[in-house]
Amino acid sequence: MELRKFTYIVLTAAVAGSLAVSSCKNGTGGQATANDSLSQHQIDSIDSVFWSDSCYHLHVQTADYYNASNTDSLEMFVPGALKTCLEHNELERYYIIWGLLAGEYVWDNDFEKGVAEAQRIQEDALKRDCEYGLFVAYKVLSDGYASRGNNEETVMYMRKAIDHYHSKDFGPIMLPYNILTDALNRLKRYEACDSALTEWKAILDRNRVGEESVSFRPWANGTVLYSLRAAEYLMEKEQYQVASAALDTAEYYCSKIPDATLSYGLVMQAKSRLANAQEDYHAALRYAQKTYDLSVKDGIINNQQTAMIAQVNALHHLGRYREALQTLLKHDEIRDSVYEISNAEQLNELNKKYEVNELKWQAERDKMQAERRQMYLLAAIVAVVLIAIILFILSRLHAARRLAKMRAAQERLESELRIARDIQMSMVPSVFPEREGLDMYASMTPAKEVGGDLYGYLLMGDKLYFAVGDVSGKGVPASLFMAQATRLFLTLAKQGMMPAEICTRMNDALSGDDNENGMFVTFWLGLLDLTTGHLDFCNAGHNPPVIGGGEHHGEFLKMIPNAPIGLWPELEYEGEEIESIKGRPLFIYTDGLNEAEDPEQKQFGDERLLDILRNTHFDSARQVIDTLKSEVETHRNGAEPNDDLTMMCLRVN
């Protein structure tokens, strides 16, 4: 249920209770004894109390239908209730009941009908010169525009509603301030929002009551709503400490209200957003989990989905990518189940309507049978036509449901792949060491939304570890294997191991029984001493890098052909070394470069790669990579990439 309708239900109940109390207080003030005779004035007073109590019960019954979203019952019940309230001059009850009917149209997605009903309330209130009626009319109009996301109209009509409210009862004014401050905050009219919050706070302060008071619950509910809206406004202004205090206040009053799990869940949801804004992702995850647990307890699917998205965001920032992906998949399962249940409910409702119509037609045919037998033929024809229409509508509904489900699945897949791509790209560095004498740059372009290439580096003092890899296959499985390889490389490099030992340890971890799909990664790993230029490296089945300088101004590096990582366990990888590569650019790449294909499937080739590097003046590592990117795009000539493309270039002086 939307927060706006939830608060409307809570505060409507509060209004019903407060008006009932006030009606009882307007009674005779005492009970006649056996020896007293009742005056006409006393009889009139008793009669007034009786009808006030009756109208109160009409109000409660209307609120019950509204809370259950029972539009049909409201339409049948409200006209009689309005007539009774009007006959006994219970105008506030009269407009509240009428407003509930109009509000149900608004929340039942019948915007035009709700607006038309609100305009009739407005015309009636003007005719009776009733400020309370105008308050109800403008409030319903504002609700209608709020349900459409039209914040400008929402603010205009809700401001009018508040200006026409002059009752001493504070309950009904809580929801208008709630919707007004929300719309102003969305419009970023912070000065106006601050002013409205100040007005709201003043009303709450004037009407503060103790826990023993009958008015404590509506006052506490209003305080919770105010604190939530104030916190949202303060978060927009980045006043996080004050926002935290406001949410603590909301949480305190939730603890004082029986059965306030929904309100408490909204507070936890807001606390999660605040922690996220403060980059305290552990706290954000903790509050999101509380929100999820409370929404499961209350059975509120929308809040469950919101909490799960907050969990995904926190897990992503904490680097717990696998859990983030699992939570996202669970979120999508819930969303799909809600969609299917909604479609089933709509279809059941349609079938019930057809069933009712069929009974009416049968009764009509039975009645006409006694009059003229000729009507049987006409009734049969009508029945056939109607059945054909029903079958046609049902077939169209089935087709529309299938199409919507296919679109939803496609959109979900695209969304998941976008998130997976963001997660993957966050695992490779986009910032490189800014150190005198070192020029380093790298780039990765997946062929699909996610890929299996990887690169990384780790700078520890004067030692620079750097690596480039290419996982077998493409797509999501390759990206997950890439994440494991990246994590292992960084973990082992931090322990100061030599490249060959790192490759051996990685192979032991990735080639075990868990690797049921037989995936592997080609890997080139170097350890460079930035002071001396000495390079230790290990090649695990990867393309040979190109090293600059020398007689030919660049050549492929000759290396020991170790096996790719992940194929066979218990291998010992051999490392190699170069005394110094100072002043000599080193270019490492994956086969998405030399095997890039044009529309005729002709490959870019090793010779072309070597020729470009030999004839490209080295201005910077990034300039070398940008040049090759451009050359590959020219070679492809519009063809789709056939493999992931990763390049790394560095030079130490």
Question: Features of this protein?
Answer:
alpha+beta; Serine Threonine Protein Phosphatase 5, Tetratricopeptide repeat; Phosphatase 2c, domain 1; five-stranded antiparallel β-sheet
Question: Which helices and strands occur, and which strands form pairs?
Answer:
Blueprint: H1 3-25, H2 40-67, H3 71-87, H4 91-107, H5 111-128, H6 131-147, H7 151-163, H8 171-186, H9 190-206, H10 216-236, H11 240-254, H12 261-277, H13 281-298, H14 301-317, H15 321-369, H16 375-425, E1 438-445, E2 453-460, E3 463-471, H17 475-493, H18 499-510, E4 521-529, E5 535-540, E6 546-547, E7 555-556, E8 576-578, E9 586-589, H19 591-594, H20 606-614, H21 621-636, E10 645-652
Antiparallel strand pairs: 1-10, 2-3, 3-4, 4-5, 5-8, 6-7, 6-9, 9-10
Gist of the model:
With about 650 residues, this protein is of the alpha+beta class.
Describe this structure in words.
The structure is a single chain. By secondary structure, the chain is an alpha+beta fold. The chain folds into three domains: 1-29 and 39-169, Serine Threonine Protein Phosphatase 5, Tetratricopeptide repeat; 337-424; 430-652, PPM-type phosphatase domain (Phosphatase 2c, domain 1, 4-Layer Sandwich). The protein is 63% helix and 9% strand. It has 21 helices and ten strands. It has helices at 3-25, 40-67, 71-87, 91-107, 111-128, 131-147, 151-163, 171-186, 190-206, 216-236, 240-254, 261-277, 281-298, 301-317, 321-369, 375-425, 475-493, 499-510, 591-594, 606-614, 621-636; strands at residues 438-445, 453-460, 463-471, 521-529, 535-540, 546-547, 555-556, 576-578, 586-589, 645-652. The strands form two sheets. The protein has a five-stranded antiparallel beta sheet with strand order 1-10-9-6-7. A five-stranded antiparallel beta sheet has the order 2-3-4-5-8. A hairpin with a 5-residue loop joins strand 4 and strand 5 (535-540). Helix 3 (71-87) packs antiparallel against helix 4 (91-107) and helix 4 packs antiparallel against helix 5 (111-128).
